[in-house]
Amino acid sequence: MLTVDLHLKNENTDTAVYNLYEMIVLCKRQKTQVLACVVGYGSSGKTHKIRTAVLLKLKEYQQNNFIKEYIEGNKVDIFNLEYQKLKYKHCLPKEAMSRRNPGIIYVFI
């Protein structure tokens, strides 16, 4: 698993989305299955804009088969319907289940 912080240094949404694309390409080259994107959970600053932009872009990437799936960290729960439908949940790190961090999005490459 590779981790990238997309809201580092007060970046704007365009830069965050560009960095997301670059990290997905890097994961594909390195044959990494999971990318953990730290986007913040939107409680302060501009992180809600970055989180929203990243989620929209991931939805587009999934529809275009650029990525397989993605799930928000707070939805990694055995009782959550999205988690239950997730095909690649076996690829998630074990600490994802215990943390359920709303500021992370797991992307399956």
Characterise the protein shown here.
- The protein is of the alpha+beta class and 109 residues long.
- Helices cover 42% and strands 17% of the residues.
- It contains four helices and four strands, in the order βαβαβααβ.
- Strands 1-2-4-3 form a four-stranded mixed beta sheet, covered by helices on one side.
- Helix 1 links the parallel strand 1 (2-5) and strand 2.
- Helix 1 (13-30) crosses helix 2.
- The protein is globular.
- The model has no long low-confidence stretch (mean pLDDT 91).
Helical residues, percent: 40-55%
**Broad shape:** globular
| Element-by-element helix/strand order | EHEHEHHE
Computed CA radius of gyration, to the nearest angstrom: 13 Å
Q: Order of strands side by side in the largest beta sheet?
A: 1-2-4-3
* Cα-to-Cα separation, first versus last residue: 10 Å
Percentage of β-strand residues: 15-25%
Count of distinct strands: 4
Give descriptors for this structure.
four-stranded mixed beta sheet, 109 residues, alpha+beta
Sequence-ordered SSE layout with sheet pairings:
Layout: E1 2-5, H1 13-30, E2 34-38, H2 47-63, E3 69-72, H3 81-85, H4 94-99, E4 104-108
Parallel strand pairs: 1-2
Antiparallel strand pairs: 2-4, 3-4
What does this entry show, briefly?
This protein is of the alpha+beta class and 109 residues long. Helix content is 42%, strand content 17%. The longest helix has 18 residues, at 13-30.
